[in-house]
Known about the structure:
The protein is mainly α and 310 residues long. The protein is built from 13 helices and no strands. The chain is globular and about 45 Å long.
Amino acid sequence: xxxxxxxxxxxxxxxxxxxPAGLWWGVLGVAAFSxxxxxxxxxxxxxxxxxxxxxxxxxxxxLAVLALALTRQQLPQGKQWLRLAVIAGGIVVGFxxxxxFALATAPASHGAVVVALLPxxxxxxxxxxxxxxxxxxxxxxxxxxxxxxxxxxVVQSGGLGTIGVTDILLFGAVLAAAIGYAEGGLLAxxxxxxxxxxxxxxxxxxxxxxxxGATMASQPPSASPMQWAAFAYLGVVSMFLGYFAWxxxxxxxxxxxxxxxxxxxxxxxxxxAWLLLGESLSWTTVLGGAAVVLCAGTAVRVxxxxxxxx
Length: 310
């Protein structure tokens, strides 16, 4: 066959696998996400957690429909719809709803420490999704990080017997987001970065619109301008524009530094909780956050390190 025959042409991906710009896109996405936990706490102060979780997805979904229509994007094909449903379940439905309910009672600093487990959880999801066989050091670092996060939750709750629904919701949110991140990073190479999150938002839009509408009917929203501003940020940036940057960074790569940039997010979230909400940072919060970030960083580095040559 000639090299210009259609049978010999390589399949082009929407985004190349490696680009120096990937890290900067990833950092931009992390910076946008770092406000999510404290601003969710702000919005929950005047709005129903169910409305905050579902309403922000409706706002982002409307923007996604507009963006896809204006740019005339092609529809996903075949199994891509199923993969989009997985992404939507993780980052559009699971994480927003679970964190909204958790942060209705928990301080933002507490939520930031537990969510600091997300990089290690994302690395684990990527390992399972790609059927990799990482070293024992990866599993050890991941396990220690999980134990550190659980230990922090136990200390903050006053003992093992008192750990409550709030921390269960936060751990569930981490699991949901990790699955969505891992699948989204892969699918973004086929559909494009912003297209992936936009289609995921469209997939979840009917469900979230029903939830938001039911909540508004039973409990009409009433909040201060600051709380509405926080809600707007969650819908426009945390649920939409932030994922543009994050998935583009993951798709462009290199994956190692882009993934590790996520370790900065809990540190920034703790800083915003202190500056914006006036939350005090106790020694347990600082030590717990440091331990979880250190273990998560170790897991990401070990997983992404090239295998040793024989």
